[in-house]
Amino acid sequence: MGRETKETEENRKTRHKMVVVGPHVSIITLNVNGLNSPIKRHRVAGWIKEQDPTICCLQETHLSPKDKHRLRVKGWRTILQANNEQKKAGVAILISDKVDFKAKQIKKDKEGQYIMIKGTLHQEDITLINIYAPNTGAPKFVKQLLIELKEDINNNTIIVGDLNTPLTPMDRTSRQKINKEIIELNEKLDQMDL
C-alpha cells in the first residue's frame, strides 16, 4: 500500500510538471518525393489531417515558389516554404490553426534545401529548421548549414528533415560506411550541443 501511494504521488508531481510546461506540441516530418500530382497532394493532406500535428514539415516538395496554393490543407493556414525554380528539392512547414504561432524571422535558401523559422508558439520562443540535404555531399552540406545558422540555434531549436546521412549505426544499412564527413558532422552536432 505504501508503495502505491508513493507511485501515485510521483505521478501527480509529474502531471503537475507537465501542466506547467504548457500545451502539448507534436511535430511530424515526411519526405513526400514530389507534390505535383493532385492524387499525391490529396493523400498527403489526408495524412496530415489524420495525424493532426501542431507542425508538419515536408521535404522534397518539388514545387516552385508560386505553388504555395498546392500545399493548402484545411486547418493549416500558415504555410512557409523554400522552393527551387526548377521544381527540385523544396521544403515546407505547415502550422496548425489550433495553435498560437507568430513568426518573427524566416531564413531560407533559393535552392529549396532548408527553411528556418524563429517565432513564438504559445508565447514560448521556438526556432524550427526543416532541412532537405542533397543526395551527394549531404554531411558537408548539413555541417556548413549549421555553421551558417549557428547564431540562430539555441536550446529552443528543433531541427527536422531528411539529412540523407546516417548519423548513427542504427541509421545506416550494412553497406553504408561512416566516413570522415559524417564523423565531422557528428562532431559539429556535439559541439553545438544538438
UniProtKB/TrEMBL annotation:
Pfam family, one: Exo_endo_phos
Domain of life: Eukaryota
PANTHER family: AP ENDONUCLEASE (PTHR22748), ENDONUCLEASE_EXONUCLEASE_PHOSPHATASE DOMAIN-CONTAINING PROTEIN (PTHR22748:SF25)
Enzyme class per UniProt: hydrolase
Gene3D superfamilies: Endonuclease/exonuclease/phosphatase
Note accompanying the cofactor annotation: Probably binds two magnesium or manganese ions per subunit.
EC number: 3.1.11.2
CC per GO annotation: nucleus
Sorted UniProt keywords: DNA damage, DNA recombination, DNA repair, Hydrolase, Magnesium, Manganese, Metal-binding
Protein name (record): exodeoxyribonuclease III
Domain Endonuclease/exonuclease/phosphatase per the UniProt entry, residue ranges: 28-178
Gene source species: Equus caballus (Horse)
CDD domains, A to Z: L1-EN
Residues carrying the site annotation Transition state stabilizer: 164
GO biological process: base-excision repair; DNA recombination
Entry binding sites for Mg(2+): 31, 60, 162, 164
